[in-house]
Amino acid sequence: MLDPFIEALSYEFIQNALIAGLLVSFASGIIGSLIVVNRMVFLAGGIAHTSYGGIGLAIYFGWPIFFGASLFASLAALLMAFVTLHQKDKIDIFIGLIWSIGMAIGIILVDLSPGYNVDLMSYLFGSILAVSSEDINYMAILLGATSLIVFLFYKEILAVSYDSEYANLRGINVKFFYTLILLLSALTIVVAIKVVGLILVIALLTIPIYIAEKLSNSLGMMMITSGIFSSFFTVIGLIFSYIYDITSGASIIMVSAIGLLFFLLFEKNR
């Protein structure tokens, strides 16, 4: 069954897809762990859908897609951080508001783009096979920057993630690190959309993390373990996607879901 995919490895677009999948998997493992332990899943969902406005903005003005989406997602993350820290009781309303407005802006700008016939499915469900060398460079820089930031400020991020009140008593700038985590989440979500799409990105940021959380005894180990699981699911999903000619994002998430099911059955029997 693997022979067609092994033969396809000679093609540059397959090589790019594998590299991109691995880079995004480890970035998702790091940021997904922070999203889960900080209970930011709903916030991340809001950022993911709001970033569609940035995609429309990039298409309308002829900018690189990653630039437009990153700009929009970062602004959404800053707004969410402000509302969460100052008016937490209104965060659900605010997320729903910018979620819908962001997508509406994106759709309108795409409709207004002259002579542009865009395949919306590629943004909704991913287009990993269309990853370019420039995309890979962006993903590599993001993974490197994220890893460096987490390494340098691991103790502060750990304290803020698990006990913000204790972190504040220790003199750690909780607001700064909370906002930083949301910003890194926004940028990671943007690159993950390229792999699995806007609709499925939250699954990529939570399924491997759930498994890793059960197998890890520290935040650092959780990040590494989830990155490994995410990479495995992505590669297997990509293989099935190529062999059976199905959407790559959906294939990756289905493989992840089946992996989670097997893990739950194994855990129950153990």
Describe what this molecule looks like in 3D:
The chain is mostly helical. The protein is built from 14 helices and no strands. It has helices at residues 3-8, 12-37, 41-61, 65-86, 91-112, 120-125, 133-152, 154-162, 164-169, 174-196, 201-204, 207-215, 219-244, 248-269. The longest helix is centred in the N-terminal third of the chain and has 26 residues, at 12-37.
Give a brief outline of the structure.
The protein is 82% helix and 0% strand. It has 270 residues and is mostly helical. It is globular.
List how many beta strands DSSP finds. 0
Query: Mind describing the biggest β-sheet?
Result: none
Rounded Rg: 18 Å
- Mean pLDDT over all positions: 90
* Number of DSSP helical runs: 14
Which segments are poorly predicted (pLDDT under 50) over 5 or more consecutive residues? none
Number of domains: 1
Keywords:
single chain; 270 residues; mainly alpha; ABC transporter involved in vitamin B12 uptake, BtuC; 0% strand; globular
